[in-house]
Amino acid sequence: MIGRVGAVLRALSAVDEQGASTSDLSRATGLARPTVHRLLTGLADEGYVDRDRRTGRWYLGPELYLLGEVAARRYDITQHARTSVHRLAVATGESAFFSARRGEETVCLVREDGDFPIRSFVLYEGARFPLGVVSAGIVVLAMLPDREVDEYLGRVDLTARWGRSHSRAAVRERIAQTRELGYSVNPGLVVEGSWGMAAAVFGRSGEPDWALTLTGVESRFRADRRPELGALLLKEAHALTNRVA
């Protein structure tokens, strides 16, 4: 039951400000619609979700906000991260992001667009991707111990949703490249022409708990510019890691 509740809340957190219907959440979680409706009704009674009576769409509720405010005192570095995201957006003109690792996913928490007029919209606040997908997921996976990487890739098939470019061999190749460079590169693997780069931010335990990302169109991520972008990402990621330590 707890797992089902968690799945519903995670699915609801991934939608935009338009909210989600019961059917939307049923599809996203793989749970039967009556089950999802029953869970949502119970969560609404406790204030964890809210429903627009006019449209019938669901949203995260006020009780989660209050709980999050308390939890943030221990876990949240978002306010510090906003400064790094802002500097990256201003310095590069690209869209900059801060994402957190949650289990086997990365969740985008902060976005700020630079002044370059053409943007990529693969990432947005609340977007979730499995480890190994998008640049944040690549760099977090690459910075985990080999044992954890092997266990994850031995159990998860990313090709079912993300295609052959996310085969185990392809992901391992990107992991090796990321470890060599210190930052990851996503050469339009999720949406053609939309590139991304990311650097890991480490928590007190030494684990890659977060990532800073830059995204944009392919022409802005030329081979001669990527080292410059990578250096900026690593500088900000190192500074943010030091703030956490």
From TrEMBL:
Q: Name one GO biological process term.
A: negative regulation of DNA-templated transcription
GO MF entry, a single one: DNA binding
For this UniProt record, give its keywords in alphabetical order, as a comma-separated list: DNA-binding, Transcription, Transcription regulation
Q: Where is the IclR-ED domain?
A: 63-245
Tell me which residues make up the HTH iclR-type domain. Answer: 1-62
Q: Write down what this protein is called.
A: IclR family transcriptional regulator
Organism for this UniProt entry? Amycolatopsis alkalitolerans
Highest classification ranks of the organism: Bacteria, Bacillati, Actinomycetota, Actinomycetes, Pseudonocardiales
